[in-house]
Write the C-alpha cells for this entry.
Amino acid sequence: MTDLTLTKKDFTSDQEVRWCPGCGDYSIVSTVQSFLPELGVARENIVFISGIGCSSRFPYYMETFGMHSIHGRAPAIATGLAISRPELSIFVVTGDGDALSIGGNHLIHALRRNVNLKILLFNNRIYGLTKGQYSPTSEQGKVTKSTPAGSLDTPFNPISLAIGAEASFVARSIDSDRKHLTETLRAASAHKGSALIEIYQNCPIFNDDAYQIVKDGGTKDGAILRLVHGEQIKSSTHGVIFEAGSMKVVPLDSVNESDIIVHNANHPDPAYAFALSRLSGSQLDHVPVGVFRDVERAEYSTLVNDQIADAIAKQGAGDLSALLSSGDTWVVQ
Amino acid sequence: MSKQVVSLNQVTIRFAGDSGDGMQLTGDRFTIDTASLGNDLSTLPNFPAEIRAPQGTLHGVSSFQLHFADHHVKTPGDAPDVLVAMNPAALKANIKEIARGATIIVDSDEFTSRNLSKVGYETNPLEDGSLESYKLHALPLTSMTVNALAELSVSRKDAERSKNMFALGLLTWMYHRPVEATENFLNAKFAKKPDVLAANLLAFKTGWNYGETTEDFAVSYEIAPAKMEPGKYRNISGNTALAYGLIAASQRSGLKLFLGSYPITPASEILHELSKHKKFGVITFQAEDEIAAVGSALGASYGGALGVTTTSGPGLALKTEAIGLAVMLELPLIIIDVQRGGPSTGLPTKTEQADLLQAMFGRNGESPAVVIAPSHATDCFDIAFEAARIATQYRVPVFILSDGYIANGSEPWKLPKVEELPDLHVEFAKTQENFLPYDRDPKTLARPWAIPGTKGLEHRIGGVEKADKTGDISYDPKNHDFMVRTRAAKVAGVEVPNLEVDDPTGDAKVLLLGWGSTFGPIGAAVDALRANGEKVAQAHLRYINPFPKNLGAVLAKYDKVLVPEMNLGQLAMLLRSQFLKDVTSYNQVRGLPFSTTELIEATMAVLND
C-alpha cells in the first residue's frame, strides 16, 4: 500500500465520457481522479456506487471498482458493501433527484447510522437525464417542462436535511472550484463515518448558470461565506454574527470585527451547523461554502463487526453441529 | 386408584383462547414434550394479525393445533379430537370444525353472560344442550388456578394468567407427556421473575394433579412412538430451519452470511433467529425499508458475501427493481418470500401460495430468476442450502417461496451430519490480465464473481445493458438480444434433480401434482385414497424455475393431472403454457392449508369424471 505512486491517469478508465459539453460533471470527475492518488488507497480497494441520473454515470469513468445501480438506492447498496467489507473505501455518487427525491429515505438512514460512505451529491437543481423537470432543490416557482406555471414545492436544503438526519460530516463545494473541492474531499476522506458533500454543479442544458452568483468573478467573493475551521465566517463584503438567538449575515462595515463568528466545524451541537445552513436563501445571495459540521461519532460497520467479534470472543466461534442440535433433542434408536 | 389407560394411534388437539391467553406457548410446550416421546407430529399455529385484539372477541381468538401419532404424520389434522377452549369466543370460533364425539374442555369461569353476549351466544352452550354430542368437560380453570395459587405472593392477574399452564398440566396428564422438560423450560423462562415462575410451576402441577385425582377424567391415553429412522431429532419450524440452512450454507461455502431485512409477518422470525448467531460471523441488518433490505444484500453479494433478504408478498413487491438489478449484474442473491394472504396487506398471519407468478415475472423486462419452494418445515433447511448452491454457482437471484403454514408449523427433524452436507466452496475471480467481467463459464454460463479488493480486476457494472464479455455499456440491438437470451439460457440451464413420482403400482389414474407447503395435505389425501383402493400418484415440485427436465414426460404419462394450489391456479398456468397440458386445478384461498377431506373429494371428482 505504501509503494503507491499512482497518478490521475491511473484512476481514469478507458470509457468515453458522455456528459453534455460544458457540464459541471467533467470538472468534478477530473478533480476526483486527481485527488485519489493522495488517498494512498490501492485502486482495487476503492468502490464508486451510484444511482440513476447524469451524475450517476460517474463510476464508469473511474478506474476502480464501480456499480451504476438503480434510482435512489446507491446508499442502501453501499451500506451492505460497507458493513460486509469495512476495509474498502466507498464513494456514493448521486444527484439532487436521486438522493433527495426517490432515494431520500436511504440517504437519511445512511447518515444517521454513520456508515463509512463518502457521499458526493451533485446538486444542479434540475432533472437533467429526463430532460428538464424541476427537482427537490429547484427554487419555488421554477418554470420547467412539468411546471409551466411554476413549481409549487418548497425546496430541500441538502445541508439542513443532512444535519437533521444526524450527519457527522456535512460540507458544500462547487464543481468549478477544483482547489476547494479537493480540500473538501480530503477532509471528508479523513472523517470516519458518513460524509456528505453537496457539490453545486452547473447543468448548461436545462439549468444553466444556476450558480452564477458563486462562480462569476464579479460576484462570487461577495456571495461566498467561507467556512474554515477556526476562522471568521465572512465574504469580501459580509460577515456572520449571532443576533437575537440566530445567525445573521450583515455588511462588514456595520459590525465590530470581533462580533463575527469564528467557525467551529467540530461544534457538538448540530443546531450551530443547521443555523449556518439556513443562511443561503433560494436566491443564493450569501452561500456558506466549506465544512459545516465534522464531529466524531462511532462508525456503523465498526459497531456491527465489533458485536460479531465480541460474540466470538465471549462464546467462541460458532459450531454448526452444536447449533443444529440446540434446544430439546431426542434420540431414536 | 389407578385409572384406565387407553392406547391410541393418533390424536389431534387444538388449544384455543384469546390472543393474550398464551395458547401458542401452551401448544409449543405440548409439541416439544410430544416430540421427545418419539411421536411423529405436525402443527398449525393460527393467530390473528392484531397483537392483542379486544378480549373475548371472535377476531381475537388464537389457536394452536397439533396432530401426533404412532406413525408418520403428514398434516396437522383435519378435525381435532380434543378442543381446549379458554373462553366462549374460542369455543364459538372453533366448534364448527370439531367432529361430534370429540372432547371439549372449556374454562367455565369465562362463560359469563357478558362474555357470551360478546360473541353472540343467546344461551349458554354449556347448559343449553347444544354440546350434548360432544364429551364436554366444563371446568372452572380460572378459579381452580387462582385458588391453587392463593398461598403464593402473586397478584390475581398473574394467577389468572397461569391458567394456560393448568390446562397444559391437565393435557400433559391426559396424554402421558413428560413433565420435566416443561418445568425446565419454565425455570429458564422465568428465572428472573421468581413469583411468576412459582405461579406457573404450581399451576402446571395442579393441572396435572387435577387430571390424576378428579373423577371427571376417568381415562388417560398413550400413543406409542412412531417408527422413525434412527438418529438424533429435534422439533423445528420452517422459519428456524431456513435460518439454520442459511448458516449451514455460509459455513460450508466459507462465505460470510449477510441478511438485509425489514420486519414483516410471517418472515420476521428468520431475522430474529439469524440475529442471535453472531458468533458464526452472521451479519443481520435491519434496513430502513424493503428496498434497502434487498439493496444491502445485493451490495454485500457484490463484496463476496452470501447476500440474503427475507420478506413476504408486499415486501417482495417493493424489492422487484433491485432484484432486476441483480439479474442484470449477475450476482448471487437469495430472496426468501414467506408468503401470506394477498393482495396488498391481505391476511398477514394466514398462509397462501399466490406469489408464485410475482416471483416468476414480477419485474420489468425479460428478467429470469430461479424459483424453488420447500415442501414442509424441515425441508426449509435443505432448500436454503440448495438456494445458496444455485445462487453462488450460477450468480443469479434465487427465490425461496415458503409460506405462513410451514414457516410457523413444526415437525420432528432428524439432524443432518454436518460433515455430510455438500461442499459449497466458491472461487472468486483471481488477479489476471485483460479481465473480462462478462466472460462466461461455458458450462454454467456464470460470469466471474470479481469482488472489490482483487488487484487488477477493477471494473464497472450496472443496470444499463452490458456488452457481451466486456460488460461495458451497450445499446447495440444485437447485443441486447444476445444478452437477454443468454440470461434466460443461464437460468433455464440450472441443474436441478428430476421429479420423482410416487406411483406404487405404476398405473395410477390420476397424478396429484403440487408445489410448496401442500406436500403434506396432498400426501395425506393420497394415503387415504390408496387405503380405499384408489390408484393415485403423487409428485411434488421443489423446483419451479427451471422445472425438472423430466416434468414434460411425467405430465405426458398421466391422462389426468390434478394440481391443488392455495391460489387461483398459478402453477397450473405455468404448466399449461410450457407443456400444453390440460391439467385440472383445485384451488382454495382461505388462509389455511388444505384439509385431507377436501383433497380426497377433489381427487374423486377427477377420477369419476
User: Anything to note?
Assistant: Chain A has eleven helices and eleven strands. Chain A touches chain B through 60 residues (CB under 8 Å). The two ends of chain A are 59 Å apart (CA to CA). The longest strand of chain A covers residues 287-294.
